[in-house]
């Protein structure tokens, strides 16, 4: 894992001191709310439906045990004993007191964490593949690039006031586990003639105008990735629609001027960048890379797993993924218990996962955009002990990528922007499809719920997506089919008129019935939908 | 009726104007009539509230009821965490929101 150097630590510490002074001035009235609001947002502090909400950055979703433990301690000490893992691999606290915020940031800084640039029209937390560095199919570990971009984008003076927020994702596998093409810029590391570089995608995103990012370059050599991104951002910063916040994201610019014209302008700017010589020093990339070198894996480990306990075997089959090192495995921890809240974890659960990471996963864990957790380096021989502890803590649900592994935004239960509640609907769907056999029969089925058009719950990218809307003061839910955030990215299509909360659960059941009736061998729900189209589903839903 | 709500500047708690001060119970809300905007200015300047705004509400047998579901959820707390809402011992409290 990356560790702060003295420069990283000093700028984070300085920001804590600065914010402490700003909070003090707000509490004494020296700053009005209009003056204070942009300052608190720059430090991830929102005023939400019930209280202040603090969004903590988890760079590319990677945490040490110590950092995870600190997140749990903060939840217990300053919040109401829990935190919420988000679809951007971050963590949010829902019940923060303004006067406590500087102390919380100081505690975060003590473990090399912060909440900087988790709000505002700047480059947000860099996201990545939760299997980075441990997946056998990647061409390189994407985390050194994600870290380099974190450093490049932190306090970047030119990109602090962009037309709108900006989200970057870096992956390095053909399997896209991070919704890369639904980011403002997506990078996919590739190898070309033995040289590492990146495919670049620009102008993707969800929200009210969802778009899958088109590729704008098939290869940028690794040493020029930062300069190329600088060119992408510079063109966007110059021409992005600052007159209308709903048209201010880069996807609108790319769409309005066209991909070819955007590419032309970026290439022109890139040529200028090359003259300026803004590529990061090779030594710096090497320094960062060293933090992500393969850990010292034990050798000669057994590949055997004792599957005598059926519940354990079910969990292994569903939650454990292949690791690149012999004798090791990747463990996915579900934060989707059937009656729970997607992405929520109690302080005790956070503490447990921190301990498991320290004891069994080389002191490392990951947060996924699907609101789950990952222990990336687990010896297969340790799987029973881990499962046992997860089971006792209510964290051993075996539902990865199944219909109950639902992404859901906080919705109207917590969010001031939401129009409808996402979480109760997620719970009703999970209970309707609770039977393990039924979930297994349906297979991979990604269901995603957003409580408003801003699409934090990624409903556009759900095999089944649900969008909550406000219809004359009453919650109403639109159903979408056919979306994907994976390497086969696509946007879901609305089935038709919306439903009540119970009505949309019934509609989903009809949709899954059609899938089971129509599928051919080996077809996922998404495959069947793409083959037979919307019509049969629509007829089943609306008669 | 029109009632005034916002968040406590220091704690962030949802609060309701009760006529002579702020309450955490929506049931204590006073009808602010046409005085809402003036109260917002005065109370925000006094650092007692942040993000204050006037909403429509009705008086029912169960007390003051904000017109919009969003404000009813603000008044009660998250419907999915009954242990954290303002009526943790009332199993039916969530129904009041809908």
Describe the structure.
Chain B: This is DUF2849 domain-containing protein. Chain B: It holds the Pfam family DUF2849. Chain B: InterPro entries: DUF2849. The complex is a heterodimer of chains A (543) and B (98). Chain A is an alpha+beta fold. Chain A has four domains: 104 residues, Sulfite Reductase Hemoprotein, domain 2, CATH 3.90.480.20; 165 residues, Sulfite Reductase Hemoprotein, domain 1, CATH 3.30.413; 83 residues, 2-Layer Sandwich (Alpha-Beta Plaits), CATH 3.30.70; 136 residues, Sulfite Reductase Hemoprotein, domain 1. Helix content of chain A is 37%, strand content 17%. In chain A, strand 14 and strand 15 form a beta hairpin. Chain B is globular and about 40 Å long. In chain B, strand 4 and strand 5 form a beta hairpin. Chain B has one domain. Chain B has 98 residues and is α+β, with helices and mostly antiparallel strands. The interface between A and B is medium-sized, with 28 and 24 residues.
Tags for this entry?
heterodimer; A: 543 residues; alpha+beta; Sulfite Reductase Hemoprotein, domain 2; Sulfite Reductase Hemoprotein, domain 1; Alpha-Beta Plaits; 4 domains; five-stranded antiparallel β-sheet; globular; B: 98 residues; 28% strand
Count of distinct structural domains of chain A: 4
Poorly predicted residue ranges of chain B: none
Mean pLDDT across residues of chain A: 97
Oligomer: heterodimer
What is the global morphology of chain B? globular
- Broad CATH class of the largest domain in chain A: Alpha Beta
Beta-strand residue fraction of chain B: 25-35%
Round the Cα radius of gyration of chain A to an integer and report it: 23 Å
Largest sheet of chain B: 5 strands, antiparallel
């Amino acid at each position: 894992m990356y560790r702060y150097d003295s420069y990283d630590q000093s700028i984070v510490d300085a920001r804590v001191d600065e914010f402490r002074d700003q909070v003090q001035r707000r509490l004494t009235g020296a700053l009005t709310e209009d003056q204070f609001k942009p300052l608190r947002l720059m430090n991830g502090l929102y005023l939400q439906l019930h209280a202040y909400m603090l969004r903590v950055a988890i760079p590319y979703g990677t945490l040490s045990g110590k950092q995870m433990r600190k997140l749990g301690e903060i939840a217990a000490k300053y919040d109401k004993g829990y935190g919420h893992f988000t679809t951007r691999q971050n963590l949010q606290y829902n019940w923060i007191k303004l006067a406590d915020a500087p102390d919380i940031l100081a505690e975060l800084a003590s473990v090399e964490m912060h909440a900087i640039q988790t709000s505002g029209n700047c480059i947000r937390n860099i996201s990545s593949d939760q299997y980075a560095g441990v997946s056998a199919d990647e061409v390189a570990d994407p985390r050194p690039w994600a870290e380099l971009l974190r450093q490049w984008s932190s306090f970047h003076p030119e990109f602090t006031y962009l037309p709108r927020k900006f989200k970057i994702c870096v992956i390095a596998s053909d399997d896209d586990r991070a919704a890369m093409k639904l980011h403002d810029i997506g990078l996919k590391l590739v190898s070309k003639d033995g040289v590492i570089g990146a495919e670049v995608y620009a102008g993707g995103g969800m929200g009210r105008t969802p778009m899958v990012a088109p590729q704008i370059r098939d290869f940028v050599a690794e040493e020029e990735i930062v300069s190329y991104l600088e060119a992408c951002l510079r063109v966007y910063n110059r021409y992005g629609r600052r007159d209308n916040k709903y048209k201010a994201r880069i996807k609108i610019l790319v769409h309005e001027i066209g991909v070819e014209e955007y590419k032309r302008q970026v290439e022109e700017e890139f040529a200028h960048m090359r003259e300026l010589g803004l590529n990061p020093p090779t030594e710096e990339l090497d320094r960062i890379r060293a933090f992500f070198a393969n850990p010292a894996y034990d050798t000669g480990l057994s590949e055997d797993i004792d599957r005598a306990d059926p519940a354990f075997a079910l969990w292994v089959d569903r939650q454990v993924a292949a690791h690149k090192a012999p004798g090791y495995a990747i463990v996915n921890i579900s934060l989707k218990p059937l009656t729970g809240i997607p992405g929520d974890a109690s302080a005790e659960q956070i503490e447990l996962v921190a301990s498991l990471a320290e004891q069994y996963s080389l002191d490392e864990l990951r947060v996924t955009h699907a609101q789950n957790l990952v222990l990336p380096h687990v010896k297969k021989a340790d799987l029973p002990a881990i499962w046992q502890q997860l089971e006792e803590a209510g964290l051993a649900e075996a539902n990865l990528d199944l219909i109950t592994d639902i992404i859901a935004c906080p919705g109207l239960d917590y969010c001031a922007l939401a129009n409808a509640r996402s979480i109760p609907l997620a719970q009703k769907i999970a209970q309707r499809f609770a039977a393990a056999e039924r979930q297994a029969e349906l297979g991979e089925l990604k269901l995603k719920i957003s409580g408003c058009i801003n699409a934090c719950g990624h409903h556009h990218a759900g095999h089944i997506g649900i969008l909550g809307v406000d219809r004359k003061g009453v919650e109403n839910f639109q159903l979408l089919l056919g979306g994907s955030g994976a390497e086969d990215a696509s946007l879901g299509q609305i089935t038709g008129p919306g439903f009540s909360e119970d009505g949309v659960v019934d509609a989903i059941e009809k949709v899954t019935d059609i899938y089971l009736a129509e599928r051919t061998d080996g077809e996922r729900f998404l495959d069947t939908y793409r083959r037979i189209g919307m019509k049969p589903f629509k007829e089943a839903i609306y008669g | 009726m029109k009632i005034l709500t916002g968040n406590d500047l220091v704690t962030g708690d949802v609060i309701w104007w009760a006529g002579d001060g702020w309450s955490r119970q929506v049931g204590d809300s006073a009808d602010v009539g046409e005085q809402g905007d003036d109260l917002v200015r005065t109370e925000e300047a006094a650092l007692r509230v942040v993000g204050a705004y006037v909403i429509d509400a009705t008086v029912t047998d169960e007390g003051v009821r904000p017109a919009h579901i969003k404000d009813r959820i603000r008044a009660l707390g998250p419907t999915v965490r009954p242990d954290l809402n303002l009526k943790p011992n009332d199993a039916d409290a969530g129904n009041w929101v809908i």
